[in-house]
Write a sequence for this structure.
């Protein structure tokens, strides 16, 4: 991270905190240079970054100003509940999304892919290549059902950063976070059971419930603090809920981080009603703030949280390396892992373990966190510039997805058809609901390095939306 | 394959067909040299191979003879049925087996690992390393849910050898054959359903039924021709069977190849009762005879066979690359794949595709088939030499597992405890039954290059068995 980028971030966070309002003058180049002990050039570079992301405008001879017209877009409204547990639809729309992902010409704004081009990822490829070349080729044979020990040791060590004390014996390596979630659900539930989920919720989880013959109960969710505890308590009173699934950190799609006191309260609630929690922490290491947020698991004192995660968002999804720390459900989880896919591939486990052990993981995270935060600001700026007045936008605290809410009567399904013709891929809001809500919302990926083409795509989205909006 | 090994195999097959009985004189070195147009040295080398596997003994000045005491051990008895569908136990014993697999000092005769040390496998490691080094690193990103296209093309091409016409669009790549089986079962069945299986049957399938809340109906199975069609028909009459699972080629554990007319009849039966068949062909490419046997799928004209397989036995299990060709059940299978683990890791798919496309697969298979056939002969020889009279032994037609049947009252569980102390790992027979039958049987792996240590291990097994046999 260079000095000028650090400084640019410092200033932009001040603007966001409201220290400098719309139209106000920002500190002079000289003042900042003195205050931060950096050169004038560094400050000028920082201002140029802010300028290009629309956060500062230069006025000749009088310095930099916060844009007068700049209003932060409003946050999305509270997520809506389902009145009763529902059977799940929308699989065809998820398939549509995946089909579009295969279009190499498309600007991919709908998918969940991280940026895998960072140079800090190089040592991982080197490790993969070296392990392949070893003549005793450990990558060729079956390994421990729980996963390679050196990797589980590293995962346990990283757990400390989220407040968890884990041992390698409590961890099971999986084929991505999706397998971890699938194993958790199957270890806990039988067809017909009810699972409480946030609304909106990652479509991989919703489809999993569908495939397992379960019913989803959608709990209203606040775009800043996460799932409503009050609504959750009411639901627990009213329905025989078999498990609760939550993604409390850098939520996909809303981007919130549940505050610690609410996490603690959530655990107490689960204890009171004796319900297990399946926690998805896949984006937790990509929180923009440091130190990273705690997991629900870190507040869990009776083994009821099944913590699921993977390196798909932090390193690379193609590795398919995830894990689950299932607490008291370890025996059932091991059985499900054995029958579901047997052991996990050996070579990528060894490579990831080596990458972390050699100290490459944290610097890579640092870089990606900063990068994604910058992208978020720029993407938010573009969305508020190009989409019609009244568009609401989430303010993700980590990860790389933005939730965009259009007027209630808007239908992103039609929008999607228009955009597909333009080779622009977005994710329809209603795949994030068990009952097909959020047709007026869409999710945008901002992982990739922002460029002119992406800006143009957002511009096109704005034009298409305007065209479709009821007059 | 060298000339002398070819010749040795030719002679041994003649002995097995009974052309040369116990104590009889084998053709002279000169006669064979003339007949086969090879040098005298080649014939002598061939005879030395036969000598060392106990199939020929030299008598000074009079040539080679079939050992007088040589009696081929009897085949195992017909597999026993369950009288009604049963709930499944034995998971603790499967876990025991896996625990022992982690003992690096043990002689591993219980596991299902292939030999991965053959030089013909080297190009696979080279491909893995090269793909990792590519700067655009396709291995890092998510890929098509059905798997990498180039791999599906190669799998479709190989299908021709087993009589199948498949297109890449009909194939879904999975994390090993276990995931393929798991997806197939979950796509077809709901808790409480009955699945018909062979008896004995691979424990991975039995545990899968257990985890999915299904009941197993064990159908008696002949150690030479496979599952009894008569018993199967009776079962289909009597019970609402939801699916049939079969491993007709180089069966694990019995080693039979179901004859083609029985395969055809099996398909007709499934059509008559309108039941889908989950076919496991994981060892099919390792049949000792050439061309390899046909799959049930190749007789299937209405899409009711879900063909499952992997490269775990033919190449390397640590890759975790398998596939399923699910016929008319493709939509359900894709949904299960998506929710179960998402896409399959990219890099090993690319490497396997390259390995096959460059023509390395078939020569590797040729080598392994010959190797495993030689090992089978030697292992059979050792078992009949060292285990007590009356021990029955399967005669596998492919693959690398031997099924050994001891007197009915014998309990391999106690045997296993004795052997564990000696660092010898075997597979208990009763994990191959849903109802805990076959306590008097064990399965031995003969993939590894036979050596003095393995022979000693078989000797020790023999001694332990003798010690435990009721007087
Ligand atoms: C919240 C969440 N959980 C799980 C997954 C699946 O992750 P993986 O690719 O590791 O299976 C995703 C991927 O999009 C996700 O966004
Ligand atoms: C008959 C049979 N099917 C499936 C499997 C599982 O194969 P994979 O390792 O490809 O998941 C095995 C492995 O032992 C097997 O023997």
């Amino acid at each position: 991270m260079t000095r000028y980028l650090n400084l640019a971030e410092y200033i932009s966070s001040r603007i966001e905190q409201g220290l400098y309002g719309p139209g106000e003058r920002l500190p002079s180049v000289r003042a900042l240079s003195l205050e931060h002990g950096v050169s004038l050039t560094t400050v000028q570079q920082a201002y140029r970054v802010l300028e290009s992301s629309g956060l500062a405008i230069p006025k000749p001879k009088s310095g930099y100003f916060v844009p007068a017209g700049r209003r932060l877009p409003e946050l999305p409204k509270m997520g809506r509940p389902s009145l009763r547990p529902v059977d799940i639809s929308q699989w065809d729309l998820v398939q549509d999304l995946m089909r579009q992902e295969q279009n190499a010409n498309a600007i991919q704004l709908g998918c969940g892919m991280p940026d895998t081009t960072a140079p800090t990822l190089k040592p991982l490829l080197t490790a993969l290549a070296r392990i392949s070349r070893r003549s005793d080729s450990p990558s060729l044979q079956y390994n421990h059902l729980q996963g390679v020990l050196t990797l589980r040791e590293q995962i346990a060590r990283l757990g400390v950063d989220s407040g968890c004390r884990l041992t390698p014996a409590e961890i099971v390596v999986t084929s991505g976070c999706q397998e971890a979630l699938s194993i958790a659900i199957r270890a806990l539930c039988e067809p017909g059971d009810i699972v409480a989920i946030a609304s909106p919720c990652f479509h991989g989880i919703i489809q999993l419930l569908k495939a397992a013959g379960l019913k989803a109960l959608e709990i209203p969710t606040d775009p800043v603090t996460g799932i409503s505890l009050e609504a959750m308590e009411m639901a627990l009173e009213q329905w025989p809920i078999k498990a609760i699934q939550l993604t409390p950190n850098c939520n996909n799609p809303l981007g919130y981080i549940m505050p610690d006191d609410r996490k603690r309260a959530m655990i107490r609630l689960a204890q009171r009603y004796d319900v297990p929690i399946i926690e998805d922490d896949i984006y937790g290491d990509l929180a923009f703030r440091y130190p990273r947020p705690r997991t629900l698991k870190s507040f869990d004192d009776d083994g009821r949280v099944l913590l699921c995660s993977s390196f798909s968002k932090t390193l690379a999804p193609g590795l398919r390396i995830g894990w689950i720390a299932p607490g008291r459900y370890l025996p059932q989880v091991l059985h499900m892992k054995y029958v579901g896919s047997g052991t996990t591939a050996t070579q990528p486990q060894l490579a990831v373990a080596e990458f972390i052990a050699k100290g490459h993981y944290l610097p890579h995270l640092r870089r990606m966190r900063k990068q994604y935060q910058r992208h978020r600001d720029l993407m938010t700026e573009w969305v508020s510039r190009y989409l019609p007045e009244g568009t609401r936008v989430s303010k993700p605290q980590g990860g790389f997805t933005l939730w965009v809410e259009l007027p209630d009567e808007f239908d992103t399904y039609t929008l999607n058809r228009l955009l597909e013709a333009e080779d622009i891929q977005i994710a329809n809001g209603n795949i994030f609901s068990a009952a097909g809500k959020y047709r007026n919302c869409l999710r945008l990926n901002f992982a990739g390095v922002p460029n002119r083409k992406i800006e143009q795509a957002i511009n096109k989205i704005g034009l298409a939306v305007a065209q479709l909006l009821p007059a």
User: Anything to note?
Assistant: Residues 13 and 19 of chain A are 9 Å apart (CA to CA). Residues A 342; B 112, 176-178, 202, 204, 247, 252, 280, 282, 310, 312, 317, 322 surround pyridoxal-5'-phosphate (ligand 2) (CB under 6 Å).
